[in-house]
Amino acid sequence: MNNTKSLKRLVIKIFKKHNLINEHSKICAEAIINAEIVGAHSHGLSRLKMYCDRIKKKVINPRPKIKIKKISKSISQIDANNSIGFVAADIGIKHAIINAKKTGIGLVGIKNSGHYGLSGYYAEQATKKNLIVFCFTNAPPAIAPHGSKKSLFGTNPICFGTPTFSKVPFILDTSVSVINRGKIRVAARTGKKIPEGVALDKYGKPTTNAKKALEGVQLPIAGFRGSGLAWMVDILSGVFTGGNHGGKVKDPFDDFSGPQNIGHLFFVMKPNLFVGNYSKRIKENIKRIKRLPKIKGVKEILYPGQNKQKRYKKNLNKKINLPANIVEDLKKLNA
User: Fold this and answer.
1) Are 26 and 12 in contact, with CB atoms under 8 Å apart?
2) CB 159 within 8 A of CB 152
3) Residues 258-298 pLDDT 10s
4) Is the pTM of this model over 0.85?
5) Neighbours of 328 (CB within 10 A)
6) Are 266 and 132 in contact, with CB atoms under 8 Å apart?
7) Burial state string for 129-142 with b = 16 or more CB within 10 A and e = fewer than 16
């Protein structure tokens, strides 16, 4: 039951029960199970109940009428009509890829969407087509702007991908918080502590209690620089696209007062826009860095994406061990 194929079939069945069409159910299930395989459990099955709850509460539209506006041969805007984020993002990255293949650059802005899972999942779609990609999406308040004690920015991931013309693409997918919010949520549900130095409670005191961290603020990477990066993503994916911004994105787990209206931005480019020998140059770049002297205990200098690929290969055909609370969620959702 816990192998990837059977879990994927079950998730498809659950989404269809919640009124998503078969195609959209498959898109969602692929993304969720992919997160489990690569070890990003905070973005996998632990969120399934949340998506279904939001559909039941009518703040995710299971049958959206998604509108695609062609602004130019390179640029498209998508109004996702409050669809589940996976579907909006899947359409968005595919259009950005098509535009880039035709003109060299594909830019797609999406509004009225929801949480779309892992940014790297969409970046990988572009790198498989030998394209360079940036992905941006904003999120509910979690990080306080530098100098403030109130959270406002999301953990707003920054994602960059490039083909390496080898088996594994270079994909940097990182939130601008010390750890992503999903990990704190998982810790809160399972009663585990979070590491020191990642969050403050609502009184501004350091905490390792996950529930208190969710009530307080998360700390950004690199102090004011991380706060600045979170602000940048809020502008690019919120202000620029027409999505919610400035702390207006609703928490998907706790706030059912309306749709999230998350914004996404996909920027895709052909790698040979400036040089004809990009494949040779990126290989040389990686080789040069991997040849550097290594510190004790390090066998190989890895580029972003390599560890994830190793986990994917290792876990693809293995049984996925699910926590008891997730098993219970699946049983109830499939009842």
Assistant:
1) yes
2) no
3) 999 999 999 999 999 999 999 999 999 999 999 999 999 99
4) yes
5) 12
6) no
7) ebbbbbbbbbbbbb
